[in-house]
Amino acid sequence: MADAPAAEKQQKAIVPFLKIPANPAEKPYLQGSRCKKCGATYLGSRMACSKCFSTDAMDDVKLSDRGELHVFSIVHQSVPGVPTPYVAAIVDLPEGVSVRCNISGVEPDPKNLKFGMPVQFVAEKIRTDREGNDVIAFSFKPV
Ligand SMILES: [Zn+2]
After folding, report:
1. What is the pLDDT of residues 14-30, one digit of tens each?
2. Strands 29-34 and 18-19
3. Could you tell me which residues come within 8 angstroms of residue 16 by beta carbon, excluding any fewer than 6 positions away?
4. Bridge partners of 121?
5. What does DSSP say about strands 134-142 and 11-13: parallel, antiparallel, or unpaired?
6. Distance from Cα 52 to the centre of ligand 1, integer Å
7. How far is the CA of 28 from the centre of ligand 1 (A)?
8. Which residues lie closer than 8 Å to 111 by C-beta, 6 or more apart?
9. Average predicted confidence (pLDDT) for the chain
C-alpha cells in the first residue's frame, strides 16, 4: 500500500497536556490551568481547584520550559519494550507545578544528576503510529 500523502500526517502528543501548535514555527509546550480565584496552577485541565475549591472555569496557561529536578530515580527494570536504564523524575516548574517525566540527554548515572539542578523541556518524536503519524513525547534534559 502506498504511503498516505504527507499532508495527512499528523503529530500526536502522547499525553493531553503536551500541546503541539499547528504552526511549526511555534514550539510544543506543556499546558496548565490556573484558578481564576486563587491563582493556583495545575498540569493539564481540571474541573476544580484543590486549593480554594472553586469550580469556576480555569484559565489555560502555557507552562515554563525550564524547571528544577526535584527528585529522580534510575529505573533498571521496566515492561518489555521499554529500554532501561532510564531516569524517572519529578521536575518542579516555576508556576508551582510538578511534572512526572523522564530525564533525557544524560547517561543514567547518579553522578550526572543533582537535586535542584536546572532542566530544560524537550519534545521529540518517539515513534510512528500505525497511521503514519509522529508520536511526540516530552522529557527534560539538564541545562
Ligand atoms: Zn483556587
Report:
1. 999 999 998 889 999 99
2. antiparallel
3. 44, 45
4. 140
5. parallel
6. 4
7. 26
8. none
9. 93
